[in-house]
Design brief:
Layout lengths: L2 H48 L10 E4 L2 E6 L2 E5 L7 H9 L8 H18 L5 H24 L9 H25 L9 H11 L5 H15 L2
Antiparallel strand pairs: 1-2, 2-3
Amino acid sequence: MSKHLSISIIFVLSVTFLCPSYAASIGEKIKDQLQTDLKTNYLKKMETQFGDCGSTPESCLSVKDDYIIANFPKKKAACFPYTMCGFYHCMEEEYHCSDVGVNYFTQLAFPTCNAYESNIKKGYFSDKGVEWIYSVMVCLQKGLIDECLLNGNCKVSNDSQQKIITCNHITEFTLAYHPGCYINSGVGVCHLPLKDKLNIWKTVNPFMTARERQEAYKVIFDCFIP
């Protein structure tokens, strides 16, 4: 075996074994960029409604369990969009949807998000795919906070019937919001490599409800007929 061939084989094997780690490092870079934007631009958007949180983002943002909370003068312990799947645990704690049989946060949103992160670590996605996944994650979380907190359309209540109304609204709003995030985040799902598209489907398919499949078909249709 020639020296050059040996070097080539070693290089290929190194890339193969390091691919998941490389994907993870790309993911950290993308998350840092998204987090910086959230802690500056999006935080300011929330401050205009709930009051100045302090001189720096760290003045009001803190980690609780596996999510970020923000404390404002007019709103304490608000769930804050971030590149963390635990955001949906925060929303569940706020609205207690599973208590009334609406399991969007616990059986759909968090498991799907967690599966994406797991498959990123396994090296299933290209750089563009990783960027798209985290961009979609932030897009969906911001959409929920806009609708529920900034627009005030998700009433918190101890009444079971009101909880059902609120949680059904959250579920329907978020599912309808998915196509826009999928199509417009990163390069857009339509422009991802075929491998990414197949792995996206494999990731979400185990958790998809009939209602979510309707939104998925809208995305597929839009890719073929913009």
